[in-house]
Amino acid sequence: MLKVTNLNVGYGNVQVLRDISFHVESGEVVSILGTNGAGKSTTLRTLSSLIQAWSGSIEFEGQSIEKKKPEEIVETGLIQVPEGRKLFSNMTVYENLELGAYISKARKNMKKNIEYCFELFPILKERKSQVAGSMSGGQQQMLAIGRALMSEPKLLLLDEPSTGLSPLLTKQVFDIIKQIKSQGVTVLIVEQNANQALSLSDRGYVIENGQIVIEGSAASLLNNDKLKASYLGISS
Q: What are the C-alpha distances in Å from 46 to residues 31, 52, 139, 201?
């Protein structure tokens, strides 16, 4: 579904990503793990064309997309939930969901998709008239994911979905991601919380200093001594 090859990206004269390559197959959940500053968010921003790659290729469903504009990327079905949620904080839950139905196909199915989001996130239905900025961090994350689902994504990009959440809320969010996968949506997660991310992933990649340094199945990464020591806090 998604194939990234030898991607090089930077800001100004500072290179952030160095020849990174990875892929995501349809129906998978794939994690990109790493510490702050490793290049995780830059990777997602490049996929969404919010940053232009210096070189390399990005193919989505067999189509080259690295030269497309952000709004054209959304039309392809590649939808990102940004780090920090980026909600319209002065608008209601319902209004935020409506704004997620950006593309014409999604607008036609808006009522059905809102009902789907309310089934997935009952708290959003209860608080549909509440201003988004007055909700808790966990509720805001659910709204951000719901807003992205309004665009009927083929591939959902999640940028640090557990940031700022308690362990209980983090578990709830990852349970919802698992449910989204079960309904046929392919998911790419970038996360620092390696244990939670890998617990629901099929495969994973570890990025350090802008380079992929470890890759493999989720099970193999959970048993990797370097990963356990660096990201899971477990000594071999």
A: 16, 6, 27, 22
- With 0-12 / 13-18 / 19 or more C-beta atoms within 10 angstroms meaning exposed / middle / buried, residue 225 is exposed
Handedness of CA 79, 143, 132, 130 (dihedral sign): positive
Residue range 39-70, pLDDT digits in tens: 999 999 999 999 999 999 999 999 999 999 99
pLDDT, tens digit (0-9, with 9 covering 90-100), for 150-179: 999 999 999 988 887 888 888 888 888 998
CA gap 39, 17 in Å, rounded: 6
Task: Report the pLDDT value the prediction gives residue 236, as an integer from 0 to 100.
Answer: 43
Domain ranges of the chain: 1-77+156-236, 92-152
Angle at which helices 110-120 and 167-182 cross, to 10°: 130
Q: Coil, strand or helix: which one is 73?
A: helix
Tokens coding 31: 């994690």
CATH of domain 1-77+156-236: 3.40.50.300
C-alpha to C-alpha distance for 171 and 122, rounded to whole angstroms: 16
d(CA 218, CA 197): 9
